[in-house]
Amino acid sequence: MSNLEYCQSALTTLKLKGISASLNEVLDEAQNDKISYLECLRKLLHIEIEDRNERRLKRNLTGAHLPVIKELEAFDFSNIKGITEEDVNNLLDFRWIDNNVNLLFLGPPGVGKTHLSVSLALKALEKGYKVCFERASNLIKLLKTAEIQRSSTFRINRIMKSSLLIIDEIGYTPIDRKEANLFFNLISELYERTSIIVTSNKGFDQWSEMMGDEVMTTAMLDRLLHHAQVYSISGESYRISQRKEE
Ligand code: ADP
Ligand code: MG
Questions:
Q1: Please, are residues 136 and 126 in contact by the beta-carbon 8 Å criterion?
Q2: Phi-psi category of 66—alpha, beta or left, where left has phi over 0 and alpha has psi -120 to 50?
Q3: Cα–Cα distance between 23 and 8 in angstroms, integer?
Q4: Mind listing the pLDDT tens digit for each residue in 198-207?
Q5: Which of 92, 124, 126, 208 is deepest in the core (most CB within 10 A)?
C-alpha cells in the first residue's frame, strides 16, 4: 500500500471526508508553493472544519422543513407598521434564542409574517442553530399521532431538541379541546428551553375562542409571553399591493 493509499484509507476510517476529498490538491499546492508542514496541516484542518459546517448546515436546512426560501434581504419594510428593519437587524445577534425568548408576529394575512419567520430561520441556521418549522395544523397532527406513528415521534423529538421552533398560522383553523391540551403540553415542555416564533392572524383576545378553553389558553399565553417580544404588524397585504402595481 502506497503512502497516499494508506492516508486515504485512514481518512475514511477517521471519517475526515473534507480532508479526504482535497488531499491531493492540497499536497500539490504545498509542493508548488513550498509551504511549511505546519501550514499544510493547518490548511487541511481548516478544510475539514469548513466541510463539516457546510454539511451540518445542509442537514439542518433539510431538517427544518421550511415551506419556502425567503431571504431577509428581499423583505421591504417601507409599507408595514409594527416592525422596523432595525428591530429585525437587532434580532440577528440571536441573543433571544440563547435566552429562550419567544417572538410573536401578529397581523392580517399577507403582511409578511411567514416571510420574516423563514428569513430569521435561515439566518439562525447559518449561525448553527437547529430549527424546526411547522404550520400549527400540522404540528397538532404530529402531536396527535406521535404515539402511534414513528415519523411523528421522530419529528416531535427533533422539535424538542431544536433551539428554535416556528409555529406558523395559529388561529387559521379552530382546534378542539383535546388538541388544545396537546398543544398546551408542548408549549409547557418547551417553556424556557426553546425559543418559539408564533405567527397568527388572531389577537390574544380571540385565542380562547379558538382553543375552546379559557383557563388553558390563559395558562398557555402566560408561558408563551413570559419572555417574549410581540410584534403587531399591520399594512396592506403584500400580495394585493403587488397585484395592484402589476
Ligand atoms: P403572511 O404570513 O403574513 O400571511 P407572507 O409572509 O406569506 O404573509 O407573505 C405573502 C407573500 O408576500 C410572500 O410571497 C412574501 O414573500 C411576500 N411579502 C409579504 N410582505 C413582504 C414584504 N414586506 N416585502 C417583500 N415581500 C413580502
Ligand atoms: Mg403566513
A1: no
A2: beta
A3: 8
A4: 999 999 999 9
A5: 124
